[in-house]
Each structure stands twice: as structure tokens, then as C-alpha cells.
């Protein structure tokens, strides 16, 4: 089995409950994470917030000329400490359901106190693929760049600042 893992962490100047609530809402991903084209059936998802363990949804991943669908299942939700989602098989599947490869992708968010009103937000993506299996190059590239997580964290800081009326 081959494993690829990518982690980055950032102190965000908002309480961890606020960061948790915002980051654990997949409908914000299209605004904050390059490559996320939002959720399939996003309007329906708003009715189900906060998500509960076992909740499943599909994210559109738009990379250049390619669009993939990632179906996620929430496997851990402990506010405001940890939030974990997992995709099993179908990694890189096309919108019509074809393609994709076997494997497991797990994304873990952890939220730690980093001083009063501050949160150390850590995001880890781990992808496990059977021997000899590769996912699409563009998808692998976006999963493997720590800078993508850093930009995601910066966008969350910006959105939370705007919501709080900070400049």
C-alpha cells in the first residue's frame, strides 16, 4: 500500500469553536479551498448543519479541464476538538460515476487552544492506495501541496474576520 500525507497548521485569531463551526461546514469549501467546486446538492446540505457522524455528501473537485466527484463520510465530529471525513474508493471518479481508483482518503481537522481567542487549526490529508494504483496527476498534485492548506487557512481567517467586522 502506498501512503501520501500532507499536513499544515496555522494559528487563526478566532476562538476554536468559531473556527470549528466554520471549517466543518463543507458548503464553505468552494469559497475557501482551491479546487473545491462546492457540494453537489448544496442547498439541501444547509438544512443538515451541523453535520452528524455518518452524514455523507459529494464534493465537486474542479481542476483545470477536469471535474471529479469525491463522496465523503463524516467519521468523527467532536466539537470543538476534531472533525474527520473519509472517502473510500472512487478516488478521482468522474461526475457520471465512472473512473476513479480504490483507496482511502482521510482528512482530519484538529482545533487546539492557542491563547485566548485563538485556535491552532491543523489539517491533515492522508491518501492510502493499493500497490500499483495511482490517482489522476492533477488530483494528486492538489492533494500534496501544503501551500494549498496554508491558502485555505488564510481564506478562513479572512472570512471569519469579515464576519466579525475586523479589517
Task: Please characterize this protein's 3D structure.
The protein has a 7-stranded antiparallel sheet. The chain has 5 helices and 9 strands, in the order βααβαβββββββαα. The chain has one domain: START domain (Alpha-D-Glucose-1,6-Bisphosphate, Chain A, domain 4). The model has no long low-confidence stretch (mean pLDDT 92). The longest helix has 18 residues. By secondary structure, the protein is of the alpha+beta class. It comes from Exophiala sideris.
Key traits:
single chain; 167 residues; alpha+beta; Alpha-D-Glucose-1,6-Bisphosphate, Chain A, domain 4; 7-stranded antiparallel β-sheet; two-stranded antiparallel sheet; 5 helices; globular; Activator of Hsp90 ATPase N-terminal domain-containing protein; START-like_dom_sf
Amino acid at each position: 500500500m502506498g501512503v501520501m500525507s500532507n499536513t499544515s497548521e496555522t494559528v487563526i485569531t478566532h476562538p476554536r469553536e468559531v473556527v470549528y463551526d466554520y471549517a466543518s461546514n463543507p458548503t464553505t469549501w468552494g469559497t475557501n479551498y482551491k479546487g473545491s467546486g462546492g457540494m453537489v446538492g448544496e442547498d439541501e446540505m444547509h438544512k443538515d448543519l451541523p453535520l452528524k457522524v455518518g452524514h455523507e455528501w459529494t464534493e465537486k473537485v474542479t481542476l483545470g479541464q477536469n471535474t471529479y466527484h469525491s463522496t465523503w463520510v463524516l467519521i468523527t465530529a467532536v466539537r470543538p476538538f476534531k472533525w474527520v471525513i473519509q472517502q473510500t474508493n472512487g478516488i478521482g471518479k468522474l461526475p457520471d460515476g465512472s473512473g476513479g481508483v480504490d483507496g482511502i482518503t482521510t482528512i482530519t481537522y484538529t482545533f487546539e487552544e492557542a491563547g485566548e481567542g485563538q485556535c491552532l487549526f491543523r489539517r491533515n490529508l492522508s491518501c492510502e492506495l493499493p500497490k500499483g494504483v495511482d490517482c489522476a496527476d492533477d488530483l494528486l498534485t492538489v492533494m500534496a501541496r501544503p501551500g494549498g492548506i496554508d491558502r485555505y487557512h488564510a481564506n478562513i481567517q479572512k472570512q471569519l474576520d469579515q464576519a466579525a467586522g475586523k479589517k
